[in-house]
């Protein structure tokens, strides 16, 4: 038996829609695999009732198929599904790393990114790499059709999870079809600023670069209280706030000393809108790793 811990991730980071992603220190899924005649999936943990155990419909099942590696795959969910924290990507990345090792398939982590993305597509509809790339490689990743680049990053983060359901399909349906050149210029500037901030481990620059006036405002309508939550987090010292992935999670970057206040104020702001929420005080972190046999 092989065990892998695969982290939650936050994609987009505002200005990097469908391109940027970070691995988070927590939460994480734990994926255990052992060889079997036929692939079998068992799911426990957060939101397990929403996750199909049918290998045809499960991300990890698709990964095992792609690597021709039948296995009994036990997924203990720490990353709640439909949270905006790359839940299916964590399971797909964990399964990819684990069965690749179990069957000695010899794929590098970079080579496993498209495999895990295909697995994620089984549930998400599209094969985005912006969550599976950081889940496998860790740090801050830039995933384009031409490949993935990554850099280690150490940025304190608060992720606030409201008790709301926003499906990725709905969140993609509201994305504008085009943008003005002025918006393009602003987006390129912000994305470049954010990337520089990640290279320098500078939360201020990262926060500034998270600004996005194209996709995020359209999606904010789907998250009750989002504007107030963002405002409150910025007032409490966050350097930047945006929707995590397709939502409804909201991610803030800040100095370590502000984390507690930012987390508390985000929960309070959701509460004022009648929405229950919880928060993780965490940071950018490493990719999926083996926990031992
Ligand atoms: N970049 C994707 C989105 C993340 O925001 O829709 C979810 O796959």
List the defining traits of the structure above.
Alpha-Beta Plaits, single chain, Ribosomal Protein S5, domain 2, 2 domains, binds L-homoserine, 293 residues, 11 strands, globular
Please tell me what the overall shape is.
globular
Number of H- or I-type helical stretches:
10
Helical fraction:
25-40%
**What is the CATH architecture descriptor of the largest domain?**
2-Layer Sandwich
- Helix/strand-derived category reads alpha+beta
Total E-strand runs? 11
What would the average pLDDT be, to the nearest integer?
Answer: 96
CATH class of the largest domain: Alpha Beta
Radius of gyration: 18 Å
Number of domains: 2
Q: SSE order in H/E notation? A: EEEHEHHHEEEHHHHHEEHEE
Q: Ligands bound here?
A: L-homoserine
Report on the biggest sheet: 7 strands, mixed
Unreliable runs:
none
Q: What is the CATH third-level topology name of the largest domain?
A: Ribosomal Protein S5, domain 2
Hey, roughly how much beta strand do the residues contain?
Answer: 25-35%
Could you tell me how far the N terminus lies from the C terminus, measured between alpha carbons in angstroms? 5 Å
Please outline what is shown here.
The protein has 293 residues and is α+β, with helices and mostly antiparallel strands.
Explain this structure:
The structure is a single chain. The chain has 293 residues and is an alpha+beta fold. It folds into 2 domains: 158 residues, 2-Layer Sandwich (Ribosomal Protein S5, domain 2); 128 residues, GHMP kinase, C-terminal domain (Alpha-Beta Plaits), CATH 3.30.70. 37% of the residues lie in helices and 26% in strands. It is built from 10 helices and 11 strands. The strands form 2 sheets. Strands 1, 2, 3, 4, 5, 6 and 11 form a 7-stranded mixed β-sheet that branches. The protein has a 4-stranded antiparallel β-sheet with strand order 8-9-7-10. Helix 1 runs parallel beside helix 2, helix 2 crosses helix 3 and helix 9 packs antiparallel against helix 10. The radius of gyration is 18 Å and the shape is globular. Bound molecules: L-homoserine. The site of L-homoserine has 12 residues, from helix 5.
């Amino acid at each position: 038996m092989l065990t892998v811990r695969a982290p939650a991730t936050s994609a987009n980071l505002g200005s990097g829609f469908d391109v940027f992603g970070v691995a988070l220190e927590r939460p994480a899924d734990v994926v255990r695999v052992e060889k079997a005649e036929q692939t079998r999936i068992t799911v426990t943990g957060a939101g397990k009732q929403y996750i199909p155990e049918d290998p045809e419909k499960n991300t990890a099942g698709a990964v095992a198929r792609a690597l021709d590696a039948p296995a009994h795959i036990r997924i203990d969910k720490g990353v709640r599904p439909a949270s905006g924290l790359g839940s299916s990507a964590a399971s797909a990345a964990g399964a990819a790393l684990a069965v690749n090792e179990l069957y000695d398939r010899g794929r590098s982590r970079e080579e496993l990114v498209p495999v895990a993305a295909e697995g994620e597509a089984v549930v998400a509809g599209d094969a985005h790499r912006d969550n599976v790339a950081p889940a496998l490689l860790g740090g801050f990743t830039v995933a384009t059709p031409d490949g993935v680049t990554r850099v280690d990053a150490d940025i304190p983060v608060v992720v606030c999870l409201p008790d709301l359901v926003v499906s990725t399909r709905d969140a993609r349906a509201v994305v504008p079809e085009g943008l003005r050149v002025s918006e393009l210029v602003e987006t390129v500037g912000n994305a470049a600023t954010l990337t520089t901030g990640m290279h320098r481990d500078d939360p201020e620059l990262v926060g500034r670069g998270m600004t996005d006036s194209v996709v995020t405002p359209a999606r904010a309508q789907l998250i009750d209280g989002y504007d107030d939550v963002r405002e409150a987090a910025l007032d409490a010292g966050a350097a930047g706030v945006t929707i995590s992935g397709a939502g409804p999670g909201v991610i803030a970057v800040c100095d370590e000393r502000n984390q507690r206040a930012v987390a508390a104020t985000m929960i309070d702001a959701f509460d004022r809108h009648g929405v229950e929420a919880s928060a993780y005080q965490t940071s950018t972190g490493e990719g999926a790793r083996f926990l031992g046999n």
